[in-house]
Design a protein that fits this description.
The protein has one domain: Ribonuclease Inhibitor (Leucine-rich repeat, LRR (right-handed beta-alpha superhelix)), CATH 3.80.10.10. 11% of the residues lie in helices and 12% in strands. The relative contact order is 0.06. The protein is mostly loops. Strands 1-2-3-4-5-6-7-8-9-10-11-12 form a twelve-stranded parallel β-sheet, with no helix packed on it. The longest helix has 15 residues. The protein contains three helices and twelve strands; from the N terminus they run αββββββββββββαα.
Length: 309
């Protein structure tokens, strides 16, 4: 789209005063200052363009509640972003952000923030002031740690941190009491803090492709957990207490170093999917039982438990 065509769109919108404007995939490398005339906008879509920066006039669109900047070439966000005080939804997938301005913490109405596929190596501690966030996506970045202050995101329901470089989790993560989904695929976690057991509303915990060699027994306290993903780790055993996860329906344990399963797992009455493929050291249950699937495995373990008792 030429600059002249874009100006025509803006002039038309300035007359008609729409609340939503999409400039999706228009091959835009810049925006004209005239965009500030669209003062009625509540939603602006600028995804799939070639924007490396935004004019300060964008930040004068004070009624914006949703801003889509996915798939551009943004390397920084200016402090002026704090002026979008009504913003509730901000999406920045597939850009080149290596850091976030401290001023982002002033977006106090933000509920959803998507930062997947950037180059973020850390989060500012001030990030914790985004107290209304319910969904935070940080997949495919370069995070090696999380600030303890993340615990102050008390309304967070979904936290996605797949494909980062996390070596540990701060114990303070336990304070995210409303969290229902925590996804940590493809990190470098070698252990979990026992405090993770305090995430009492968690229904999904995803830990595939890490370096976990054991689980804390207190994981049994995650009483609402329905899905637990632990494939591609270094687990050599499971705590018997895992049998107390009474709502568990799916348990994925493929590609580990398990030699046996605690027979107490057979007490998981809601379990419908149990994956054990590629545990070369596994002898109980034996390979011929594993090949028969979940129900055969549970039947085998139930017999072991009865014999044990």
């Amino acid at each position: 789209m030429t600059n002249e065509e874009l100006l025509q769109i803006i002039e038309k919108a300035a007359r008609e005063k729409p609340t939503v404007l999409s400039l999706y995939n228009k091959r835009l490398s810049s925006l004209p200052p005239e965009i500030s005339q669209l003062s009625n906008l509540t939603a602006l879509a600028l995804d799939q363009n070639q924007l490396s920066s935004l004019p300060t006039e964008v930040y004068q669109l004070s009624k914006l509640t949703a801003l889509d900047l996915n798939n551009n070439q943004l390397s920084t966000l200016p402090p002026e972003i704090s002026q979008l005080s009504n913003l509730r939804w901000l999406s920045l997938f597939n850009n080149q952000l290596s850091s976030l301005p401290l001023e982002i913490s002033q977006l106090s109405n933000l509920t959803k923030l998507f930062l997947n596929h950037n180059q973020l190596s850390s989060l500012p501690s001030e990030f914790s002031q985004l107290s209304n966030l319910t969904e935070l996506a940080l997949n495919h970045n370069q995070l090696s740690s999380l600030p303890p202050e993340i615990s102050q995101l008390s309304n967070l329901i979904s936290l996605r941190l797949n494909h980062n470089q996390l070596r540990n989790l701060p114990p303070e993560i336990s304070q995210l009491s409303n969290l229902t989904k925590l996804s940590l695929n493809h990190n470098q976690l070698s252990s979990l803090p026992p405090e993770i057991s305090q995430l009492s509303n968690l229904t999904m915990l995803v830990l595939n492709h890490n370096q976990l060699s054991s689980l804390p027994p207190k994981i049994s306290q995650l009483s609402n957990l329905t899905e637990l993903y632990l494939s591609n780790n270094q687990l050599s055993s499971l705590p018997p207490e895992i049998s107390q996860l009474s709502n568990l329906t799916e348990l994925y344990l493929s590609n580990n170093q398990l030699s046996s399963l605690p027979p107490e797992i057979s007490q998981l009455s809601n379990l419908t999917s149990l994956s054990l493929n590629n545990n070369p050291k596994l002898s109980s249950p034996p390979p011929e039982i594993v090949e028969q699937g979940t129900q055969a495995i549970l039947t085998y373990l139930r017999a072991r438990l009865e014999a044990k008792g």
